[in-house]
Structure formats: structure tokens, C-alpha cells
Amino acid sequence: MSPPTLYGGDTPGPAAGSRVPCTRCRRARRRTSGASRATAALLGIALLFGVFGAPRSGPLLSAGPADPADVEALRARIAQLEASLAARAAQVPAAAPAAGGAFRPISTQAAGDAGRSAKTGAGDAAVVQALLGRIDRREGRELADELRELLRAGEKSYPTLLDFVTALDANAERAGVLPGAYFMSFSVVHVAMLEEEPAARFAHYLLAATATQQKSFARSILFDDFAVFLRFHKGRFPDLERDFENAVLDRLRSGSGDEMPLMLLAAKTLGLRIDPTIFEKLVANAKDQSEIGPPLDALQAIDDPRAVASLLRILHVQRRFREAKARAILLTLARMKTPDAGQALSRFMSSKDAEAAGAAAIAYFSLPRSDSSLPLAIEALNSGADLETKRLLVIRLRNANRPLLDALKESIKTAPDRIEAAEVREIVLREGTLRKGAAGKAGATQPSKP
């Protein structure tokens, strides 16, 4: 049987020696269809050891003949996964796959408990160095064999595996070998597919052992792709699933900007329904753009009436529409697709508060709009907003709505009075630049005298 490609369908992976696609590229590939994404997801367990994707079109292992028993076991597992995926694609309930046949929940709690008291440096240093040496020498087959032996040894080997992963944390170049060399990646994929239950136990241990770490190689591996493994095996590892979900939610509540996108992806993969008030508090308390951006991105990703309500509550309390926070919130509303967001933004644009209406118009025209929006642009330019707000609006038209700005300029040439203030007409014609000496003017613009 010819094994399928990692990327789904019949699309081959990279040629031997070529670079493996980046993480974002791989995620984009996974999104192309539910079935192909799930196929890649089933191999996510391999990412416990830094495997971010490798083609199945290359050699199974880096060197030497494969064990026939291992090959047959791997082929049988692939067949099980393909059958389950086919059933899901046809919307037919399929039993969660298990290497032993019938579905049975497996407890990994003991491993998680052991991880909570784990300390680095307690493993076998000689074995750790041997594993690192395998990576340095690109010995995929040998690395795979040794990792498999350690996984099968159970809890007594976990300190050594933890020290191995910690050592990779300390050397980004070495850690990059696993995702960067496809034959190394696939060697470890082979191990993970054959040893799913032992790998899940070690994942629980690693999750608990690294609970206080941030920006670590180990944590990024767990949250980046292990979620897809748990989603596929829903209910098979209930203890790990519970602790994993709690860890994702705890990270989101902490408001760590660097980790926010990763945690959101994991939450989405797991199908978690996140309470938007988590991010509402982070936005309300944010002091600068670096703190406000990630939680706003999170609310935009939730994109439902609850998220809109959270944004409106913040604006109700912090009604300073010239400030960056309020304008960022309005831009988030403009980017959301739920009807509640569009309705809320429209209310701000028609507000009698000129400052709020101007800020909302800037947010609205920061995204491409149709020709039918031209009257809205004219209305905003004739409003009581100050000259700087109108200049920023014209710049948004120039950057995101060039056809609208061109139509507006032509309209002014044929019917100048459509824009009431001469200085605003000048800004439109100059596409957002002020005449010399006009910079810094404040206050509402007045219609020009006839």
C-alpha cells in the first residue's frame, strides 16, 4: 500500500533535502479541508519531540532496513486512521481508534502527578547526551529507536526525557534540526504512531513539569500541535484532556501576548467555548499597544455577540475616542463579521458625539468598502469632527479604499460643495497631506463661505 502524503490528498511532500515548510505554511495546508487537516493532526503526537511535519514520500527512517513488524504495525495504524477519517468525512459516527482494537479510556493521571514534582537534572545525563549526539549527527534511526525504548520504559524514563527536551530548549539551533531535517522528523513520527499511549502519558508528565515555564520549546510543542491529537482521540485520555484544557485557559487568563495566538489556536482545535470576559478585563487594564493587541485579536477571533458586548462595555467606561485603545476597539468591531459588530459600529458612526463618529468612520474605512459607501465617507468629512480626524480618514481611504478616494476626488472637481469645508476639500485632493503651516490645527472644520 502506498502511504498517503502528510499534507493530505495526493500532493507530495518536499523533495529530499528541501526545507520543510514553516509552521504557518503547515497550518494553512491543514485548513484546506477537514479531512486533510485531520490527517496531519493525527501525527501531532510526534511533535512532542519537535516534529513539525515531514513528508511520507521520503524514506521511513534515516538509515538501515526497517523492522518488518514495525512496518506492518505502522501500516495497520495508518489503515485504522484512514478508516476513521473516511467515516467522519461521511458524517458517520466512528469509534475513537485504539491500537488494541476496542475503545477504552486510558488514565494518564499518575504521569501528570509525577510531573508536578519533577525537577530538571534528575535524569540520566549520559543518555541525554547520547540523544543530543544523535541529533547532531543526524542519526534518525538510532534516535527513534532510543526514544521508543525510553517511552516504553514508562515513568522511570521521564526525568531523562524531560532533561532531553530541556536541553533542546537551551539550544535553538539543535532543536531546529528535528523540524528542519525531514528524515529526522519522520523517524520520530514513526515512533509516536507506534507508541501513542506511552507518548500520551509522557505528554501529561511534560505538561505538568513545565507548567511554570514560558516561551519554552517543550510548551510550544505541546500547545502548538498536541491539541489535534487530543481532539482526534476525544475521551480516550480524559485526564490529560482535562489538564490540557485547563492549561490553555490558564494561559489565556494570564494575558501573555506572546502566547496568545498559540493558546487561541489550541482552544479552537479543542473546541473550547471561551468566555470573552477573560479578554475584556485584559483590554480594559491594558496600558500600551503591546498589551491591548493580543486580547483584542482574541475577541475578534471569537466574533460573536458576547465578544461585541465585551467591547462595548469597555467603550462605555473608557469613552476617550482620540486615544489608541478606543480606536483599536472600534477597528476590532470593523473587522468582525457578526452582524452585532456592524450594527454597533454604525451606531457610533451616526453618533452626535463628533469624536466618536469620527473615530468610528476611521475604523470603518480602514477595511475595503464598496462604492455604495461613498455617501458615508462624504457624511464623515462634513461632520463636526476635527481636521486631524478627517485627515486620518482620508489616509484610510487612500490606503484601503483607493477607488472610493478617486471617486471622491472626481466628485469634488465636478461638485465642490459636496465637501463643505475648503480645507477638507484640499486634504482630499492632496490625499491626506496638509498644506504648509496647516499641520496641528484642531477643532471642528467649518463650511467655506460662498
Number of domains: 3
The string of secondary-structure elements, in order, is HHHHHHHHHHHHHHHHHHHHHHHH
Tell me the total number of β-strands. Answer: 0
The amount of helix comes to: 55-70%
Strand content: under 5%
Shape: elongated
Structure, described:
The chain has 450 residues and is an all-alpha fold. The protein has three domains: 1-212, no CATH class; 276-346, no CATH class; 365-450, no CATH class. 61% of the residues lie in helices and 0% in strands. The chain has 24 helices and no strands. The chain has helices spanning 23-30, 34-41, 68-89, 109-116, 125-136, 140-153, 158-169, 172-175, 177-180, 182-194, 196-209, 217-232, 238-254, 260-270, 277-285, 289-302, 305-317, 324-335, 339-349, 354-364, 374-381, 387-400, 402-414, 422-429. Mean pLDDT is 78; it is low at 1-63, 92-101 and 438-450.
